[in-house]
Amino acid sequence: MKKFAVFGNPISQSLSPAIHHMFADLTGETIQYEKIEAPIEGFEDTVTNFFADERAVGCNVTVPFKERAFKLSEANCNEEAATAKAVNTLHKVNGCLNGYTTDGMGLVADLLSTTGSLSGKRILLIGAGGATRGVAGPLLRENPESLFIANRTFAKAQAIVSDIANPKFEAITADELVSVEAHIIINCTSASLTGDLPVVSESMFGKCELAYDMVYSSQPTRFMQYAAEKGAAATRDGFGMLVEQAAAAFTIWTGKTPETAGVIQKLRP
Ligand code: NDP
Fold first, then answer.
1. What is the pLDDT along the chain (269 residues), one digit of tens a residue?
2. 155, 92: one domain
3. Residue nearest to atom 22 of ligand 1 (CA)
4. How many domains does the chain have?
5. 263: containing domain
6. Whose C-alpha lies nearest to ligand 1, atom 16?
7. Are residues 37 and 152 in the same domain?
8. Mutate-to-test residue for ligand 1 from 189, 215, 222, 267, highest number of ligand atoms within 8 A of CB
9. Pair (148, 208) in one structural domain
10. What is the CATH number of the domain that holds 177?
11. Atom of ligand 1 nearest to the CA of 131
C-alpha cells in the first residue's frame, strides 16, 4: 500500500483525504492518505518521520507550512514553486524530495473545463499573494492575449511581474481596472473569507465572460455576487481548482490521471 498525507496546522477541515481516496478508487490504486497536524515548531521533523516509512510516496502541504516545504525541496522544485517560494506537493523519488506547486495546474484545468480555451483572452488577476505567484506562469503558458494583475498593495503586484518577466504580464492600478476590458477576472485574494471585496471597479465586468473566485463556499462568494450584479456573464468558485490541484498531485505521485468531474460534483460543499 502506498502512503500519503496532508500536513497543516490546523488540518481537521481538509478534504484532501476524501478527494485522494476517490481518485484511488477511480484509478485502481490502493492508498492510505491521512491528515497530519504538524506542530508549528516541528514541521520538518514530522515530514522526515513520515517519509522514513518506505511505503510513503508523497504528501500535500497546506497553511502555514508551504514556504517551509519549499525549503525542504528547493533544489528539486518546479518553476511555479520557485516563483512562489512555496510548495504544496512533495514527492519522494530515490530518497530525495521533489517539490511542486500544483495550484496553477489546478486553476488552468478548471478554467479550461469551463471556458474551453484561454488563448487570446485578456485575463485579470486580483491579488498578489502566494497563490497568485503560483498561477501566473501556468496562465501565461495558455497563450492569453495579456495577463494583468492588480492588488490592494500595488508593490506586491509589481514584484510578481518583475519576477516573472513576461511581456504579456503587466501590473495595473485600481484606476486602470476598467480600461483593460478583461474577459476572465480571477479573485486570487482571501477577501471572500471575511466577506470583503478585493480591489474592484463596478464597470470592469462589461466584457467579463467569467468571474472566478479562488475561495469556495456552499453559497456564491461576495465577489461572485458582485460580479454577477455588475454584468459578468458567468461566475465560478474555486472548488474545481481545489480538486484539480489535487489531481495534479495525484498524477505526479502515481502517473495516473483521475477523472475529476464526478469528484467535484460529489464532494462540493
Ligand atoms: P496570501 O495570504 O499569500 O495572499 C492574500 C492576498 O489577498 C493578498 O494579495 C492580500 O492583499 C489579499 N487580501 C487579503 N484580504 C484582503 C481584503 N480584505 N481586501 C483586499 N485584498 C485582500 O494568500 P494566498 O495567495 O495563499 O491565497 C489566497 C486565497 O486563495 C486564499 O483564500 C486561499 O484559500 C485561496 N486558495 C484557493 C485554492 C484552491 O484550490 N481553490 C488554492 C490556493 C489558494 P495584500 O497584498 O494587499 O495584503
1. 999 999 999 999 999 999 999 999 999 999 999 999 999 999 999 999 999 999 999 999 999 999 999 999 999 999 999 999 999 999 999 999 999 999 999 999 999 999 999 999 999 999 999 999 999 999 999 999 999 999 999 999 999 999 999 999 999 999 999 999 999 999 999 999 999 999 999 999 999 999 999 999 999 999 999 999 999 999 999 999 999 999 999 999 999 999 999 999 999 99
2. no
3. 191
4. 2
5. 2-101+242-267
6. 191
7. no
8. 189
9. yes
10. 3.40.50.720
11. 25
Question: Is 207 labeled as catalytic in the residue annotation?
Answer: no
* 117, 173: one domain: yes
| pTM, rounded to two decimals | 0.97
Statement to judge: residues 154 and 183 lie in one domain: yes
Q: Looking at residue 32, which CATH number applies to its domain?
A: 3.40.50.10860
Please count the residues of the chain: 269
Do 162 and 191 have their domain in common?
yes
Q: Which residues line ligand 1 (CB under 6 A)?
A: 103, 106, 127-132, 151-153, 156, 188-191, 193-194, 196, 198, 214-216, 238, 241-242, 245
